[in-house]
Each structure stands twice: as C-alpha cells, then as structure tokens.
Amino acid sequence: MESKFYRTWHLAKSDMEYKITEFEWSLIRFFETFSRWVLANGMVTITADVDLKYQEHFILHVIRMQDRPKNSSTIARLMNRDDIPNIQYSLRKLETAGLIEKQRENNSKTFAYNASELGVKLTDEYYKVRHELLLKRLEDINDVEEKFEKGARFMSLLTGIYEEAARDCATITPVVAEPPKKVSKKRPE
C-alpha cells in the first residue's frame, strides 16, 4: 500500500502537497542523520581537547575549502547562514582548540581564518575516514555520481525557491490568535 494512504498530513491536501511534505520530511531526517555522521566522524578524527558541535565541524571544513582564508561573512554566505555572532563564537572555539588561525585582512578591522597545521591534519583524517566508511558504501548505488550531481542542482534550485518564499513570509502580518475565554466556575451555594 502506498504510504499516502496510511499517513495523514495536515500539510497535504493534494498529491503534489503530499509529495512536497514527504520530501521535506525526508530532508529533516536526512539532516539529522547527516549531523550524526559528521559528529561521529569528527569524534574519531578530531580529537582535539574541545567539544565541537556539528556547525563547528562544518565551519572548519568550509575554512579549509580551497585552502584560502575566509572571514566570518564569507563563511556565513557559503553556508547560507545569517547568524554571524554564532559563527564568530564557533570561530573562537576553533581558534582556542588550535584548529584555525586568525589573521588580519589587508588594511581592515576584520579577520580571516586559515586551518592551522593541526586543523589540516585532522580534516585530512576526516577525509580518510569518510572515504573508507561512507564513499565505499555509496559506490554500490547505480549511477551514484549522476544522482549526486542532479541532486545537488535540484537542492540548489530549491534553496533559492525556499529563500524567496521565506522573504515573502517576512512581509505577511501574522495572524494573532485570540486567547481562550476564561470559563468562570461558580461555586454551588
């Protein structure tokens, strides 16, 4: 039996809405499992004396991307985030752990960050574990490279659509629910 016949969604009143809702639900589950994977691999490879969260692992890899320094604004843009104070907090944790190094940008008050020697070593270890435990499993999927390429393009397209829809939401006046009426309980006399 198809799942749409036994799973009721308050967000789905048509076949298209059902399929979109199922896709969003799968994204939520994928994000959670991807986060667990990043943290599990990080625990194996990044054994610096610091408790890194998922976002900090990923910020370290973004800094390492293309092996050139990045400032907090560039990191935010690459990760599609707008919470720069949280990114800066993560950068301080990574710097304290010795995984990144801070350098002043040319004639500027801002700083850019590089992966330190330790950060490079540990992200290389992350790559090795990723290759051994994950990529070898993915090779068993038929046409996996093409599927990932198409999937990445599809996700990029959806990112733009959801981003635009989020901007549209910002222009809508929220509906304020009326508080429930108090029921007076009279005591019997």
TrEMBL record:
Alphabetic keyword roster: DNA-binding
Annotated InterPro entries: HTH_MarR-typ, WH-like_DNA-bd_sf, WH_DNA-bd_sf
SUPFAM superfamilies with a match to the protein in the record: Winged helix' DNA-binding domain (SSF46785)
UniProt KW DNA-binding keyword: yes
GO molecular function: DNA binding
Domain HTH marR-type: 45-146
Protein name: Winged helix DNA-binding protein
Organism field: Paraburkholderia solitsugae
